[in-house]
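TA notes. Do not distribute before section.
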Amino acid sequence: MSQTINSSSFLIYLAGFASASILFFARKVYKDGLLSSIITISRSVPGVQSIISAEQKKLGSEIGSMIRSEFKFLTIDYEELPKEGLSKDEIFRKFDTLLKHHHSFNEGKAFGGIYHEDEELHDIATQAHVKFASTNALFPSIFPALKKFENEVVRMTRHILHGDERVVGVMTTGGTESILMSIKAYRDKAKKERGITQPEMIVPVTAHPAFCKGAHYFGVKFVIIPVDPQTYEADVKAIKDAVNRNTIMIVASAPSYPQGVIDPIEEIASLAKKRNIPLHVDACLGAYILPWLHHLTKKWDFAVPGVTSISADLHKYGGGPKGTSLILYRDSSYRRYQHFTTGYWAGGLYCSPSMTGSRAGGVIASAWATMVARGEKGYMLAAKEIHKHFVKLCVGISSIPNLKLMGKPEACCIAFIAQGIDTFKIADAMEARGWKNLNRLRQGVQIQVGHKNSFDIDKWLQDLSECTTELKNNPDKYKGMAAIYGMASKIPADAGIIEPILEDYLEALYE
């Protein structure tokens, strides 16, 4: 028996030692479905972790080299302040030189998180920002106009989202801050009112990573639940099974970023209401477009009993300036827990409604100007035009042999996967043709649809079809990010292998 145990141990160790170099081989073997299991087992074998770490560093170094190559045209001109300040003309000449490198965006071949190209609206928003650039919403008594703007942006948005006069909100710097605020509010509410000291949140795997970030920041257990493998909607039964006495919130998306699918929010809300658990709907993508897509039958906003908060990004389909989002609550009993207040400070009493202290007045004024300039009719027309492009892309992608849509996209985003072809290499092939608007998912690739006349849909679909055919005939062509994303798609999310590589990527950006 002892000899058998020793032999088994040796075989396990040998297998583990061999798989320890998994990152070295991953770019070649990531199609092997055993990869996930091998990594999970091998990490516990003595000596394996050090080899994995070495391969992580090697891959991180390679990514660093890729970043440096991509941005080799950038030079550091100032390690210290210039002795004499630059003139306005000198500064703007530098701007013009650098803006030339934004060619892929200017040519309509990159998305870049910019959702519209309305020059008139952009001009209004820019001028509004300039007028209020030197204001600060931290001091409403000094800058009362900002109080008016913010309150009216909240009220207009709550009306769009079928909220009554009890619905309240706060403007934030973006969707991530809006999401973080909801987690903070629900954590504190649960602690004070229910005595929960080990909070948990239930989050579909398709929800935005800001929820994971918030869980990390605020010490909330992140409970991931699966989605239906065919529809990509959150699994309501899995949510029900995950609920326990420590659950402080449930999350749903309208729509989800990966596949553009709206979760079954009416069902989830019914469950949440019965269990007296807050339900947050992340509508950072959908808040300013879904209300005008009347063909959609799913209900998802404050019209649904049980929905207690919604995050809504004005700087996406709302047409607002970057750095404008809202977090809205069913009533002020939730929002009160978002605030930060303290009386200990030697500098006096202090309070703030969100993460930041000072809040730039320019973007608040610009957001207000955007909404009143567009009006109901403007949002309706924009939604109609965007959805026309959305449908054309869905039909076009579906008609290309070997490509399959992931689920039934409903708005904003379209995800697809290749059959018999490396999906990630399609993104590399499209990028080689200048297209930088395909986002690589853990499984599949995705395109976001905006209000952009510069985006040539017909040319994009033609190139996509040609790239798919090219890779079918020559599968070994293109060696960009495909290997890295292919490897990542097979590694367990909680394996702790990918994160250090991503840290290296971030560090390389700041070199």
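Switch to the second chain here.
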Amino acid sequence: FHMFEVHDVIRGNNSSRSQAIDQCLRDNPCVPCSPDSCVLRLVQETVDPNCLFSGLFDCSENRFPLEKFCSSHLVRSSLVNLGMTESIIPWSMLAERAESVPNLYISNALKALERSALIMKSISENLAHPDEDCEETADLATIPFIPVLQKPSSYLPLPWGGEGHQFWSGDK
């Protein structure tokens, strides 16, 4: 498929598109997500760049569909219907984002802290809309992404629980 052929198929009326075409669109990397259109992703690997949780991703990770590809409301709506992440972030994607926090902290501490806060907000949102994939939350609980307040220099000579750690996991 050429990018614009896929665009035309996705843009087509949802009711007139066959289930076979929808399945083909879900099963094949066909959504251009890089400026040169060379990186194609599965629909379910893409993230709506305008969603509340788009800050969990960097543009360099090529998770956002090209603007010119999904500029039409019809195409964006079809991508969401086919599985593009728009509001509820899958647990596996949250775990992947949580694993990125400590490395991101090395290069950009502020961005890492913002990502950590967004992950916690996403967890809260996911728990408000439970589904059958909740067993994946156990994986997330073992990933150290929760920032630890460093011991203040004027702190009493008592043990500090987070001493020597920048991040803790949810099971601490």
